[in-house]
Each structure stands twice: as C-alpha cells, then as structure tokens.
Amino acid sequence: MDLGSLEITGGVPLHGEIRIQGSKNAVLPILAACILGEGVCVIENCPQIKDVADTLEIMRHLGCQIQCAGNTVQIDASGVSTFETGGEEAARIRSSVLFLGALLGRMGKAVLPLPGGCAIGERPIDQHIAALRQLGARFYLEEKITADAADLRGGQVYLGMPSVGATENAILASVPAQGETTIFHAAREPEIDELCEFLRRRGAQISRTPEGDLRILGGRRLGAVRYRMKPDRIVAGTYLLAAVATRGQVAISDFPCQELNALTTVFHDMGVSTICGEDRIEVNAERPLRALPYLETAPYPGFPTDLQSPLMAVLCRARGESQICETIFENRFRTIPELQKMGARICAEGRCAVVKGVPALVPAGLAAPDLRGGAALVIAALQADGTSVIRNTGYIERGYEDICRDLRALGAEIRWSDNG
Length: 420
Ligand code: UD1
Fold this sequence. Notes:
Blueprint: E1 5-10, E2 15-18, H1 24-33, E3 41-44, H2 50-62, E4 65-69, E5 72-76, H3 87-92, H4 98-107, E6 109-113, H5 126-133, E7 138-141, E8 144-148, E9 156-158, H6 164-174, E10 179-184, H7 190-201, E11 205-208, E12 214-218, E13 225-228, H8 233-245, E14 249-253, H9 261-270, E15 273-276, E16 280-284, E17 295-296, H10 308-315, E18 321-325, H11 336-341, E19 345-349, E20 352-356, E21 365-367, H12 371-383, E22 386-391, H13 394-397, H14 403-409, E23 413-417
Helix pairs in contact: 1-2, 1-7, 4-6, 5-6, 8-10, 8-12, 10-12
Bound molecules: uridine-diphosphate-N-acetylglucosamine.
C-alpha cells in the first residue's frame, strides 16, 4: 500500500468545467477481451490508474506485448502462450477473475488464484462459475481455480443475480465459443454495453433483447481495433458530488448525462439545480441542501453502490435526517468511523445508516478504507474549514487517475504529500 497522503484545505466552493478520464470498470473487461481473436488492439483514453497497471502486468505474464504512451495502450496478444495468470497482481486485484472467461475462450483452459475477500466484502464468484459451467466449462477448486473447456459451446446462461463480473465473464467465454448464447438476467450497467460495443467493433455479433438479455452469435473472427474509452460515470459522479458538497457550480463536458440519472434524481430531491444535456451535465448547489428521507443502492439503472460513500459524505451537512441502505456490498460502511472523526452524526445498523445533518465538519487525520470510501473522505475534507490529511491514498489511485489534478482544476486546495 502506498504511503502517500493527501492534504486538503476545505471550505472553497468548486467552480469550473472538467473532462473525465476513461472508465475503469469498462476498460478492465475490455483489456481481458484483448486476448481474444487476432490483431493488435489499441485502446485510447485508457485511464492511468493502478488497476489498469496491474491488469497490464497480468497480460504481460500471459505473453502479451504491450506498449503504453500516455493514455494510449497497444496490445498484441499473438504471443499468449499460457493459461495460468501469474504474478502477485492476479491475486491482488479482483477483476483478474475476468481472465477466467477470456482464457477459457482463448486457450480452452484457465488457472487463477482463488479470489479472497476484499475491503468491501466477501465478493464470491459462484455466479461466474455457474455461468461458465453452462457454457461447458468444468471447474476444479483447490488452492487455485482451474477451469477446463475443450468443448466450450454456446448455450443458455441463467444468472442468479445480475452480477456485473459474471455477465462479463459469460460474454468473454461465449464470443469465441461456437453457437448461440443467451445470457438471461444479464447486468445492464453501461460498462457491459461498452464491452459489447468493443467486441462488436472487432467483429463479434452481440445484441441486447428488448427484455435486457444478451444474445451472442459465437465463433466469429475477431480482428484488430482502435477503440476510445468512454468517460467514467463514477468519477464524474464523484466530482459532481464534490461540487455539491462545497456548494459550488461545476460542469462536466463530453459526458452522457443519462448514465447518471439516478444521481441527478437525488440532486433534484436535495434541491440542487442540474442541467442535463446530451453530452454535458452541470450542477449548481448554491442553495442549502435537503436531506434524503430514503435511498438504497441497486443495480443499474438504480443508484450505484460506488457512489454511496461519496453521497454519504455530502449528506453529512444536509438539512435534516437521511437514510441510506446498501444492498449490493456488505462492507461499504467503513467510511463512517472516519466521517465521525470529522463531527458527522451517522448511526449504522446492519445495511442501513442514518445521517443527521450537522452545520459544519471539522478537519481531521483520516485513513481511506477502500477506493470509493477514500473518495468520500476527500469530499468530506473539502467541506471542512482547515486542513485534513488522508492516508492510504493507494486505494484512491486504483480508480482515480489524479484526483488532485482534477479537483485543483476546479479550484480545490488539495495536494499530495509523501509524509504518510
Ligand atoms: C463491479 C464493479 C464495482 C461495482 C459492482 C456493482 C468492476 C471492476 N467493478 O464489481 O465497481 O461496485 O460491479 O455495481 O466492474 N456476487 C455473488 N456471486 C458472484 C458475483 C457477485 O454473490 O458470483 C454478489 C457480490 O458479492 C455483490 C453483488 O453480487 O454483493 C454484485 O456484485 P457484481 O455485480 O458481481 O460486482 P463486481 O463485478 O465484483
């Protein structure tokens, strides 16, 4: 874990317009998809974040030739020669599980470390395994996961829940498999559609039925591609929440506003004025904020679990009492004790938390508990008069290219310091 910290002097309303980095949750499955088919894949607007660096390292271990120049990554997977993900990165990052579907598709076999729990909870992979079994894979689970599918074939995949990762694994395995696959109860997150779009540009045949299922005609030749990543809706949401928290006025350009409908609905309920264009979104939070009587996280198009902690940091100073229930991950309230150090009044019981708005937060020394919890602490610190220090910023760097650069561009007083 990185020992760096962030120093934030709060109390400054954010103002300005910003563009958003490429999407983390879309690029991770897209990178895994680069090992399928033939030809070089060039990914533009690839976010320079730790999760991407770790994924590229896993791909180098598999035999990929990778060249990075700024935000452009070029991947030649013609040399992939092993079905075993090596290196500590595969054990460290959760999304390495996506190489299960990709390696089965490419090599007919995959060996991965068993995924442990992570900071936000247990995160089992039963849905991934069930989905791939329905496509003909056999599994042996000992110290490692070994999957074998000499006869991977299209079929009917029923997901017990719309898991994002399990849907992606089912797509990655079924695109190279012969025959037609239907994925029922598929996740509807925009990142799934971006993975499908990427694969279609390479020659795959994938469509979403009116019911939301995914239909894949497998076995088509996949070729080279140059693809530009779309902006990250969670990073966009984080910066909009930071703007609202500081009673500022911020616009995000080149961003499809409808992807954040769940957030803009919340803004409306809180009394934040929002202008939603086709490719621009602007918030103005100069009026006092109202509390939210009840909000629960849900799969897309519901309120994203990844924005739950950042929203909680904003509600700490809203007028009245808010209730937030986390329905996706069991361990996403680890930000609460840190927010309490700043004077927030939050009481959690089970999966729900009640936030009583206070007039002001006080600066404090804080530790990021996980990626989005770290972003939430940044938002809290931006509201407190005086200087807060946030440690464990390595978590934040897993998903934000440079949160310091972006928030400074909006007028925040925030800087990296290495005195962790
Ligand atoms: C992805 C996102 C993460 C986001 C989450 C939910 C990436 C890299 N990460 O994570 O940022 O918070 O979607 O939108 O895209 N589950 C099972 N069994 C399984 C799989 C999942 O029980 O086999 C449970 C999980 O424990 C969790 C819920 O289903 O409670 C949702 O998980 P899932 O949609 O799979 O999330 P991830 O793909 O891990």
